[in-house]
Amino acid sequence: MFVHFRTLGTLLAVATILTACAEFNQTPKPQPKVSSDIVIKPKNVFPQRNEKPINTVRSHYGVDGAAQCLQQHIADDFKLPNDFYTTQRYDGGEATVQLVNPATGKGGLYIDIVPDNGGSILLLYQNRATISNAWKRLPEKCR
């Protein structure tokens, strides 16, 4: 009888090992196909610029305040309607105010606004455009 339990214990151990191996070597179950209609949007990441800014200004305004200040000066000083400029906000807290040609959708100069110890830093890029001194001084109006 002792031998019988020993054999039975061995058989149970072997059966457990074989079951585990069989589960390990199973062919993976087919996964449901992802629909091509699903669009995964990347996070709104602040872009790396290929050009150097032509004007850099520290502002006591935070990012949102600086963006509002720039928009106000674009509208008041340059008499541009609001469809001539856009503001893009990024997940990291940065923003970009950019001139846009509403007829073509092409962007002109842009100002990146980066948070800086309660204030912000304004970085003006001309984006291959020739711009006047008045536009070059725009960030200085929002110190």
Describe the 3D structure:
By secondary structure, the chain is an alpha+beta fold. The protein has a domain at 55-142. It has helices at 2-24, 63-77, 133-136; strands spanning 55-59, 85-89, 95-100, 107-116, 119-125. The protein has a 5-stranded antiparallel β-sheet with strand order 1-5-4-3-2, with helices on one face. A hairpin with a 6-residue loop joins strand 3 (95-100) and strand 4 (107-116). The radius of gyration is 31 Å and the shape is globular.
User: What's the overall average pLDDT, rounded?
Assistant: 81
* H/E element order: HEHEEEEH
In order across it, which strands form the biggest sheet?
Answer: 1-5-4-3-2
Strand content: 15-25%
Task: Supply the helix-strand structural class.
Answer: alpha+beta
Features:
143 residues; 5 strands; 5-stranded antiparallel sheet; 23% strand
Secondary structure: elements and pairs:
Layout: H1 2-24, E1 55-59, H2 63-77, E2 85-89, E3 95-100, E4 107-116, E5 119-125, H3 133-136
State the gist of this model:
This protein is an alpha+beta fold. The chain is 29% helix and 23% strand. It contains three helices and five strands; from the N terminus they run αβαββββα.
